[in-house]
Amino acid sequence: MKEFFQKKLVQPILDLLKQGLTPEKLSASLAAGIVICCLPVIGLTTVLCLIFATIFRLNHVAIQLANYFSYPLQIALIIPFLHAGNWIFGVQRMQFNLDQMVLHFKMDWLDFFKTYGAVAARGCVAWLIFAPLAFLVLYYPLKIILKTTSQNKRI
After folding, report:
1. pLDDT for 61-87, tens place per residue?
2. What tens digit of pLDDT does each residue of 16-41 get?
3. Counting CB atoms within 10 angstroms of each CB, which of 29, 68, 82, 133 has the fewest?
4. Dist. CA 88–CA 117, nearest whole Å
5. 147: which residues sit within 8 A by CB, 6+ positions away?
6. How far apart are the first and last CA of the chain?
7. What confidence score (pLDDT) does residue 153 get?
8. What is the pTM of this model?
9. Residue 154: CA atoms inside 13 Å, Cβ hemisphere, count?
């Protein structure tokens, strides 16, 4: 497992530093990829990373790399963001039961998307509130780590 992360995550990041990407740009790209991946809607983060990297001139490889490796974080944070969104909007806390959700979808798919689409939208608002702070909390330590790494390894 250690070899997998070394080969697929650490080495590509070091290679980006070797190619001249600054620790600041790399840190911003990695932090953005992680934060965007926490969006509580599965399937949108790759496109959002592409758009975000283009607009802010971040490294596409780094942002997608961070996005890819952060998917377990997205799964872990979906329900908390959905509950936070409901709390922000004063909506009663929902119980998310997969069996009930599948049954709801089979019985009335239009009502399913109306119900859970609204929940997802509220979760996205919670994520939007959380995202700027999370970016800063990730960016500065990553910048320090990458600067130190690039100086120590003389990249």
Report:
1. 999 999 999 999 999 999 999 999 999
2. 878 888 999 999 999 999 999 999 99
3. 133
4. 16
5. 23
6. 26
7. 64
8. 0.86
9. 0
With contact defined as beta carbons under 8 Å apart, do 17 and 149 qualify? yes
What is the model's pLDDT at position 138? Answer: 98
Listed in sequence order, the residues at least 6 apart from 74 whose beta carbon sits closer than 8 Å to its beta carbon are: 37, 38, 39, 40, 42, 45
Angle subtended by helix axes 45-56 and 23-37, to nearest 10: 150
What CA–CA distances, in Å, run from 134 to 38, 86, 95, 103, 144? 10, 20, 26, 36, 16
